[in-house]
């Protein structure tokens, strides 16, 4: 059994949904929780203090990108990732498995690991499961993700079976390579493609390894939404109740609610910050394209019901002006708003679970509407 440096306690349930606390070396995280993404050690445009003020408890960074630049050993010499980036809360690092999927021909997999072609210096680098763990432990993060193989959709059963078996072997090698069990937790990633029996079997295999936590990976890769949630349900049903469950890379509000209903606790996605950089804001009335001409003389805040700094301070017209003028402040202010919206949404989910199944189910339709184009209807109508 792995020596655990984290714990997870469930406080309330609403069907399969649960709210609880994930305790890690750098702090406690109320769940369900959403992690802003700071791929290279920074959530684009925002300071750690701003992230704390908008309600973030835990951040995600990326092992591959930090390994390539500035390098994990340099980060360690600078006092570790927490100190370097000025964040004192928990950090989870993704392993690089998704980069192997997304890089296409710029990544080569074999039994030993993954070879990547780094964009900034055009050099090939080899990531093995052992090195993956070494990098993350050297960074000093709270949660290390095991190296896995993420494959395309659709993929035939034979390929999925072989890929899933490789993910298991890599996880076993990651577990054996751990040297700082008291400081860095290890999460395994459930694969299995879109074959329910393979998903269930892999979840049971990982459950038998008694890991610190479990992620559900290989989803949101182009499949129909219904298929994605079928796989979430299958995997979550097989995972241990006393460990946190993390759905990787899924971030639309409606999708988060559906995953929470199925027993998922932890999320990450670039969506709120990436859409902000393109001028889109999440509101209770839908996703707003702030650069639209309809807002050129609109003195209202993005969302009159939002308490974030952006909505307390600036109008839609001013934000539109900033974007059209290509001011750096524009994506910063929209990122602040979107991440505040997400953290408030997660708090609302936690409250709904504590209230009961009816309160949680009442959020499902509004959350889907929040990701649709902006409507002039008041949010009271949308939330009915």
Write up this protein.
The protein has 17 helices and 16 strands. It has 384 residues and is of the alpha/beta class. The protein has 2 domains: 10-269, TIM Barrel; 275-382, no CATH class. The strands form 4 sheets. It has an 8-stranded parallel sheet with strand order 4-14-13-12-11-10-6-5. A 3-stranded antiparallel sheet has the order 1-2-3. The protein is globular, with a radius of gyration of 21 Å. Mean pLDDT is 95; it is low at 380-384.
Q: How many β-strand stretches? A: 16
The count of domains is 2
CATH H-level homologous superfamily name of the largest domain: Queuine tRNA-ribosyltransferase-like
Instruction: Please give the largest β-sheet.
Output: 8 strands, parallel
Please count the helical segments: 17
Task: Using the coordinates shown, work out and report the CATH topology of the largest domain.
Answer: TIM Barrel
Residue share in β-strands: 15-25%
Shape: globular
| Gyration radius, rounded | 21 Å
Distance between the termini: 48 Å
Low-confidence stretches: 380-384
Q: Return the average pLDDT rounded to an integer.
A: 95
The main sheet orders its strands as 4-14-13-12-11-10-6-5
Annotation keywords:
384 residues; alpha/beta; TIM Barrel; 2 domains; eight-stranded parallel β-sheet; three-stranded antiparallel β-sheet; 17 helices; 42% helix
Question: How is the secondary structure organized here?
Answer:
Blueprint (H helix, E strand, L loop, with lengths): L6 E8 L2 E8 L2 E5 L1 E3 L12 H6 L5 E4 H6 L3 H6 L3 H5 L5 E4 L2 H6 L4 E4 L2 E5 L6 E4 L1 H11 L3 E3 L11 H21 L7 E6 L5 H12 L5 E4 L8 H14 L5 E4 L5 H9 L4 E3 L2 H7 L2 E4 L2 E4 L19 H5 L2 H9 L4 H27 L1 H5 L2 H7 L8 H4 L2
Parallel strand pairs: 4-14, 5-6, 6-10, 10-11, 11-12, 12-13, 13-14
Antiparallel strand pairs: 1-2, 2-3, 7-8, 8-9, 15-16
Helix pairs in contact: 6-7, 7-8, 8-9, 10-16, 11-14, 13-14
